[in-house]
Write a structure and sequence with these properties.
There is one protein chain. The chain has 137 residues and is of the alpha/beta class. It has a domain of 72 residues: Nucleotidyltransferase, domain 5, CATH 3.30.420.270. It is 35% helix and 16% strand. A five-stranded mixed sheet has the order 3-2-1-4-5. A hairpin with a 2-residue loop joins β2 and β3. α2 packs parallel to α3. The chain is rod-shaped and about 110 Å long. The chain starts with 18 loop residues before the first helix and ends in a 6-residue tail after the last strand.
């Protein structure tokens, strides 16, 4: 007599096998861990430190350049053209190496006008440079 087992070969599984899902999750985690640092757009660099960074600049050595709405350039409240501005800045730099320049521009000034003035400051060799802003209300 043939014995029959209680088990049927075509029995439905009531549990889901999670092992393949965990394998997939770990593979995706490893892929993201490897690719995430590569997506960073910044440059890895060591920023230099300075003992003189906290020292304030003598107000007598600070000169102001202003650009109005029409794009006219003023040096110490006197209207000048770009060659004259560059000439004056070179004279200031030659007389005092610690000369600083502040650039004030109207909100509607063209970016190109600002860049042109900044180029003049750089050509004069002045490295202490700032742009005047006001806090947002």
């Amino acid at each position: 007599m043939k014995r029959f087992s209680q088990r049927s070969p075509h029995r439905t599984l009531s549990e889901i096998n999670v092992t393949p899902l965990l394998d997939l999750a770990f593979v995706l985690l490893i892929i993201f861990m490897i690719t995430t640092p590569l997506l960073e757009k910044s440059i890895d660099m060591s920023i230099p430190t300075s003992d003189t960074a906290s020292q304030s600049i003598d107000p007598q050595k600070v000169h102001t350049i202003e650009i109005d709405k029409a794009g006219h350039t003023f040096f110490e409240k006197e209207r000048v053209d770009l060659p004259e501005l560059e000439r004056r800045l070179k004279i200031l730099k030659a007389s005092d190496r610690d000369t600083a320049v502040l650039l004030r521009g109207d909100q509607v000034v063209k970016l190109q006008d600002m860049v042109t003035v900044i180029d003049s400051v750089q050509k004069a060799g002045i490295t202490r440079f700032g742009i005047v802003t006001q806090p947002a209300h």
